[in-house]
Specification:
It is built from 13 helices and 13 strands. Helix content is 42%, strand content 16%. The model has no long low-confidence stretch (mean pLDDT 97). Helix 1 packs antiparallel against helix 10 and helix 5 runs parallel beside helix 6. The chain has 372 residues and is an alpha/beta fold. A hairpin with an 8-residue loop joins strand 12 and strand 13. Bound molecules: pyridoxal-5'-phosphate.
């Protein structure tokens, strides 16, 4: 017979999910109401405006997709790309590779700007690729590559894409709430994020925002969007575009209470203060790791504060150390992926987890386990 599932209480310092803030956990357990209840609809509107502040955009079409970050990614691609159209994907880690698969499944054509894992996207390489592919319509990039801990210069990459009259798709799953994400300054066209990193919510929702240019394209496209669930024309009607609300799916009511609470908390703290907090604890972690003889992998100018890629010290057994941290200290850190598997650990300082106490805890137990 099955028993009630009681998850262990862990300190989550991997690539996400991060620990959910107690206020968000409290919000999640509030009474479920109907998703067309006028009170709930009021909260949906509030979420839209809180997301506009979080993304720093005035885009009318700004809302959460009722599914995780990968669904936000897919929503951007299926709506902005039709079969046969060319997309330039900038790949410097795992998530650029997922973007490529999206384009392939749509039947789009691809031009890939490949960069070393651990390096940001090279703007000159993007410009060269766009010169060589004048028929490209869309450029896609990852702001904060969670697989490597690298930040790319989205301001510059979006400006280059505009020179070639391309729409832009930007992944901000790991960056939102931890570093500056300024959709209107970037003039990015389709931007998606996730709730389980610096927003301190559980996984399962994907905030998205679309520019007028993007929505013009969606209105004009000739072929139907392959995904019924992610078709923006339908989803935006559900989120009240044009004043009407047309049933599309049953919103994850309690998950949206959680998102609302976390966005409220971010507003109370202030975006700049939240970014500063991430930067400060990142500095503490970096200094402590240096004292333990553990090196950072990424050059300081591209380093993400919320995702610290570090070299596994010589002689340490990757899987064994991580297993001990988890079993003996309830501490989760992340392994390397792809070519970095077995070479790096990924230490997350995300959202509510970006605290001095987490840094000190992580340093002290790492020291114990490594020096045993
Ligand atoms: N993009 C990036 C940069 C991510 O880090 C992740 C998840 O880790 C995703 C996309 C996919 O999000 P999800 O796992 O919520 O589907």
């Amino acid at each position: 017979m099955s028993n009630i599932f009681h998850p262990p209480v862990r300190t989550l310092m991997g690539p996400g999910p991060s620990n959910v803030h107690p206020r968000v956990l409290g919000a999640l357990s509030r009474p479920t109401i109907g998703h067309l209840d006028p009170t709930f609809i009021g909260m949906m509107d509030d979420i839209k405006s809180l997301l506009q502040s979080t993304f720093q955009t005035r885009n009318e079409v700004t809302m959460p997709i009722s599914a995780p970050g990968s669904a936000g990614m897919e929503a951007c691609f299926v709506n902005l790309v039709q079969p046969g159209e060319k997309v330039v994907v900038c790949r410097n880690g795992v998530f650029g590779a997922h973007m490529i698969e999206n384009v392939q499944r749509i039947g789009g054509e691809l031009a890939v700007v490949d960069n070393e894992w651990g390096e940001p996207v090279d703007p000159d390489a993007l410009r060269d690729t766009l010169k060589a592919n004048p028929d490209a319509r869309v450029v896609a990039m990852v702001h904060a590559e969670t697989s490597t801990g690298v930040r790319s210069d989205v301001d510059t990459l979006c400006a280059i894409a505009r020179e070639f009259d391309c729409l832009t798709i930007v992944d901000t799953v790991t960056s939102v709430g931890g570093i500056d994400v300024n959709v209107d300054r970037w003039q990015a066209d389709a931007v998606y994020s996730g709730t389980q990193k610096c927003l301190s919510c559980p996984p399962g929702l994907s905030p998205v925002t679309f520019s007028e240019r993007a929505m013009d394209y969606v209105a004009r496209r000739q072929t139907p969007v392959q995904s019924w669930f992610l078709d923006l024309k339908l989803v935006t009607q559900y989120w009240g575009e044009g004043g009407a609300r047309v049933y599309h799916h049953t919103a994850p009511v309690n998950a949206l209470y959680g998102l609302h609470e976390s966005l409220l908390m971010l507003q109370e703290e202030g975006l700049q203060d939240a970014w500063d907090r991430h930067a400060k604890v990142h500095g503490l972690l970096r200094d402590g790791l240096t004292q333990l003889g553990i090196d950072m992998v990424v050059a300081p100018e591209y380093r993400l504060p919320m995702l610290n890629a570090v070299s596994i010290p010589a002689g340490a057994d990757d899987a064994q150390v991580r297993a001990r941290l988890l079993e003996e200290f309830n501490l989760e850190i992340g392994p390397g992926l792809g070519p970095l598997k077995g070479k790096i650990w990924r230490i997350g300082l995300m959202g509510n987890g970006a605290r001095q106490k987490n840094v000190l805890f992580c340093l002290s137990v790492l020291d114990q386990v490594l020096n045993r």
